[in-house]
Input
Amino acid sequence: MMKILIQNIKGLIQYSDSKRGIIKGNDMGNLPVLEDSFLIINDDKIDSFGSMTELTEDTETFDQVVDVAGKFVFPCWCDSHTHIVYAGSRELEFVDRINGLSYEEIANNGGGILNSAKKLQNTSEDELIESALSRLNEVARTGTGAIEIKSGYGLTVDAELKMLRVIKKLKDQSPLTIKATFLGAHAVPQEYKEDRAGYINLIINEMLPIVKDEQLADYIDVFCETGYFTPEETEKIIQVGADTGLKAKIHVNQFTSIGGIETCVKNSALSVDHLEVMEDSDIDCLRGSNTIPVLLPSCSFFLKIPYGPARKLIEADLPVTLATDFNPGSTPSGNIPFVVSLACIKMNMTPEEAINAATLNGAYAMEVDDELGSIEVGKKANLFITKEIPSYSYLPYAFGSSLIETVFINGKKV
Ligand code: NIG
Ligand code: FE
Output
């Protein structure tokens, strides 16, 4: 048994004495902060916490005592949307965009997702594991403690399964909590351009049964977008996924609004992700549903596309969630502190709203809320300590600074 005392915490962020539900609407402005406090880690779990005045145990009884005067303690971020298993990088497309090409034009010229798929098909499982592990280490250092990872750069039976087997191994090899999402419907491969139904049948009849047998995925995803998959095709895949026991987390409304949100809500998707281009009717669809809206502002930043309508979603009493979208094409970054800053700067979320969105709501969007997303007795000791800062709002304010000093995953320093 390893017992660690963290004491003299300036503010313990997102603590809760009993389970807090997903955070919606006006309540998103409420961020619980316990000032002048302590927290005790026992092995891999949060054992207890409270005000310094309530600390009764003798410091001798701990294996380690960490004094954090002037510093804040946060629960780790829960990044519910990434594509961190990939091969190669796409900075040439980045330069093409600087020179005036659009994301769509690049994709139509053989770049984009198909470019990454070609590279991944020719990369071994071991190489994919190695590069993904190094990305996981990188995001852990900026405070991420749980992460969802999608397939979708395979686009053949073999390569999609290879990606998912890699993610399964990452679950064993990384201390982070990982959820896997099957995104066979990320793009229509070149050889199926004239036979879209053929590719969808391949997903349903060849890929999904093995995904199920080998328990390779927790969720199913589709890129529902003009030029990718229609709402009707999306619905079919969501429904077959549901029969296989996979809830849906869907890419939708990134570039165009084509009715995908209605399809997702009707089919009880767990989350709808991106939402850069939203009609009022799309927001109305989400109102009162259990489908979680996930915004990805670092994708908007990198592709220079609109930011999701965070304020309108909050006004509609919805539980806005933030994630990175870390991937080689549209968001080559997994830095949640930057996402939180962008949410404040570009989407007018308050620091309280943005921190709620990237912690507990992120946990709900990947169903790890029982063990992560907040400081609660019995939850995993995935938390981070900041440097000395004047207030928690300083974190999004001082964008680009590395203000996270120490990260604990499963009670161990990383
Ligand atoms: O979430 N939009 C679809 N998929 C990724 C980008 C894919 C790529 O360009 O490689 C995204 O932005
Ligand atoms: Fe994505």
